Amino acid sequence: MAKYKSMTDEQLVKAYENGSNDAFDILLKRHKERVFNYILRIVKQEDVANDIFQETFVKAIMTIKQGRYTENGKFPAWISRIAHNLIIDHYRQEKAENLQSTDIEDYNILNSKELCEATIEDNIISEQITNDIRTLIEQLPDLQKEVLKLRYYANLSFKEIAQNTGVSINTALGRMRYAIINLRRLASEKDIALTV
């Protein structure tokens, strides 16, 4: 772990791409305070900031692991842009959830897909995907399975997961990272589509 501390961000990204999880831990430690403070300064709610912060690093993990990281020498700007985009997504979602008036001509709430009944085919596909995901989750190591279920089924923040399981937020994030990586690997190996 000590050898990674002197590496540049770009070297750490490369080391992480090549399988070193310690390299990503150093990146996280290096940038977490600045990224979290940036998010908190905009959203002004600690719980929301925690969720967006966690999603930022999960998205960074996925992007790097998929070989799509291309910002040479600009990791801090890149991770901040991910956070910024997630903040925008949060406000868009919040605005959509609070939209109640049908006075706006461009938006007819009665034509919203969310209010339409699903077709039989939609229900069958959705049920199949749900069953496939449950089957894959059961194949995960217990610690990864626990974090994933607490996050997506119990809807807990990573802070709450850390408190409930007696580990640090970084450990909870790491377990989630591995759970997602392993789910994708298992789905790929078994040729299972996780989306419609």
Describe this structure in words.
This protein is mainly alpha-helical. It contains nine helices and no strands. The chain folds into two domains: 1-116, Rna Polymerase Sigma Factor, Chain: A (Orthogonal Bundle); 118-196, Arc Repressor Mutant, subunit A (Orthogonal Bundle), CATH 1.10.10. Helix content is 71%, strand content 0%. It is globular. The N and C termini lie far apart (41 Å).
Q: Regions with pLDDT < 50 over 5+ consecutive residues?
A: none
The outline comes out as globular
Secondary structure: number of strands: 0
Under CATH at level 1, the class of the largest domain stands as Mainly Alpha
CATH superfamily of the largest domain: RNA polymerase sigma factor, region 2, helix turn helix motif
Provide the structure class.
Answer: mainly alpha
Q: If classified by CATH, what would the architecture of the largest domain be?
A: Orthogonal Bundle
- What is the percentage of strand-forming residues? under 5%
CATH topology of the largest domain: Rna Polymerase Sigma Factor, Chain: A
Strand count, sense and barrel status of the largest sheet are: none
Spatial extent as radius of gyration: 19 Å
Mean pLDDT, all residues = 82
Summarize the structure.
By secondary structure, the protein is mainly alpha-helical.
Secondary structure: elements and pairs:
Blueprint: H1 2-5, H2 9-17, H3 21-43, H4 46-65, H5 75-98, H6 120-138, H7 142-152, H8 158-165, H9 169-189
Helix pairs in contact: 2-3, 3-4, 3-5, 4-5, 4-9, 7-9, 8-9
